[in-house]
Design a protein that fits this description.
alpha+beta; 3 helices; 61% helix; 15% strand
Amino acid sequence: EPRMMTLAEAAAYCGRPQKRFRAECPVVPVAFGDRDMRFDRVDLDRWLDGLKAGAASTARADILSRL
């Protein structure tokens, strides 16, 4: 797996459709040059691990606050 992923790659990595991924994922992409935004796999793993560890209610509240 590449360390830095496009939106499509990051969504697929997390097993989410792109539209849903953008709404759910709190990970901020890293800017590489001119409009090249990439998601760090380590940050995605940290977010996913937090969901598994029972932090899902906190993540849901964060998602709802952003909608």
